[in-house]
What we know:
single chain; mainly alpha
Amino acid sequence: MRVTVEIPDELAAELIAAGKDPAREALEALTAYQRLLDVAAEADAREGIRQGLEEMHRGEGRPATEFFAEMREKHGLPG
């Protein structure tokens, strides 16, 4: 996969003046951003699980066996 990142000339000049490689800095920033997205996705999944457990403890929802029976009937699947 190829990714193209445009670094504004002014920023590139500042990075070079500071002895840094603009391409490496961009790659590190993209890597950090991806890690942030991964953490957010994991947190979202954990929150969904937490909410589901909370609902279950409050007696909301229905048994999985009931749900699967309904899905089998709805989609004509063997039981």
